[in-house]
Amino acid sequence: MTNIEIKTWDIFCRVIDNYGDIGVCWRLARQLVNEYPFKVRLWVDELQALKQIWPSTQICDQQILDKVDVRIWVGAGADDFANDIIPADAVIEAFACNLPDIYLTAMKHKVSQPRWFNLEYLSAEDWVESCHGLTSVHPQLGLKKTFFFPGITAKTGGLIKEGELLDEIKRFQQDKPTKQLFLEQLKTQLPSDALLISLFGYENSAVASLLEAWAQSPTPIMCLVPPGKILPDVSRALGQELTVGDSFAKGSLKLQIIPFLNQTDYDCLLWACDINFVRGEDSFVRAQWAAKPFVWHIYPQDEDFHMVKLDAFLHRYAQTLDIDTQGAITRLWHQWNQGKDCTDAWNACLANLQNWQKHNQNWRQHLNSLGDLASNMVHFCQKTL
């Protein structure tokens, strides 16, 4: 792309949901700096979370990671933020994290005022389409902020997807030696007839019923569990304390605790597995691009408001499925997110697995037709120049 007046981007991120917030911001920053002639600064308040998904991260004030200028964001007040920072041409306030006052003032006094985005959380609710692209004006400074919603419809901003992602997935999934080598690096021996499942989620008492259903399954199950909030529930359900490197076997189930993976390797895990249990936003989006059956553990909210968001996604995601498969998926997602017995719902999904698998291929085609989040943000900037 040529003659782009916007050359620099600042992304501000506060870590709330462990890896979801920083995961989204880190992927977006890397895509903007690697696929466009942009310079990108990522301001983050918790570097340890970034280090978990990108191990070369150092705990320091400033560093260059994969061409992204990563800065520590100490606080939101004027006393906590350097007063000599020149705002970028485009500024992303991720998930309403509130920019530092001194930075906002600098934006006001910049000769060409930056394009200012509030990047919202992903939601499939109907109201999102009418709010995507709307602007608000700062009451004191007069700066205009645009609300940008990731989404799964043509009237939203799309999902994060690097330009080469689908080709990378295709190469990985079609190259059996590559997949085998990846699993061997995890010290996983996969029986030829086993269903490979990744399990990543929040605390969830429903995991006991799921593990028992897998143990009783007519199909052999190999489950890979990285360390995380769900691991203590897995340990309680199986009656033994499990840590990285441990394994467990019962009936048709073989379960293995694998190391926590960086973003690149976690993507490969999603591509390699037959079914993925994911949580939050980042792994939820990557599971959709993997085009494999998946179960989403949405971030819990008070008064079960998260279930409204879950159903809004299910309505759009499952509406083209046959009634049996649609019902099975809906029941499993509901039982899983409400901490209830998953046995019957899991068995129904297993009976409709082929339909579910085919549907995810079609779903990915739909998502790909919407463009991707980074490109859509760049195009929005160009339209407003």
Task: Set down the secondary structure blueprint.
Blueprint (H helix, E strand, L loop, with lengths): L7 E6 L6 H16 L3 E6 L2 H7 L8 E4 L2 E5 L17 E5 L6 H9 L5 E5 L7 H5 L3 E3 L6 E5 L16 H10 L1 H10 L9 E5 L7 H9 L5 E5 L5 H8 L8 E4 L2 E5 L5 H10 L2 E5 L2 H9 L3 E4 L7 H14 L4 H15 L5 H9 L1 H16 L4 H11 L2
Parallel strand pairs: 1-2, 1-5, 2-4, 5-6, 6-8, 9-10, 9-13, 10-12, 13-14
Antiparallel strand pairs: 3-4, 7-8, 11-12
Explain what the structure shows.
The protein is α/β, with parallel strands linked by helices and 385 residues long. It has two domains: 8-159 and 370-383; 165-368, Rossmann fold (3-Layer(aba) Sandwich). Helix content is 41%, strand content 17%. It has 15 helices and 14 strands. The strands form two sheets. Strands 3-4-2-1-5-6-8-7 form an eight-stranded mixed β-sheet, covered by helices on one side. Helix 7 crosses helix 8, helix 11 (305-318) runs antiparallel to helix 12 (323-337) and helix 12 (323-337) runs antiparallel to helix 13 (343-351). The radius of gyration is 22 Å and the shape is globular. The mean pLDDT is 93.
Question: What descriptive keywords fit this protein?
Answer:
single chain; 385 residues; alpha/beta; Rossmann fold; 2 domains; 8-stranded mixed beta sheet; 6-stranded mixed beta sheet; 14 strands
Count of domain modules: 2
Biggest sheet statistics: 8 strands, mixed
Query: What is the H-and-E element order?
Result: EHEHEEEHEHEEHHEHEHEEHEHEHHHHH
What is the CATH class of the largest domain? Alpha Beta
Derived from helix and strand composition plus strand pairing, the structural class reads alpha/beta
Counting DSSP H or I runs of 4 or more residues, the number of helices is 15
Query: What share of residues is helical?
Result: 40-55%
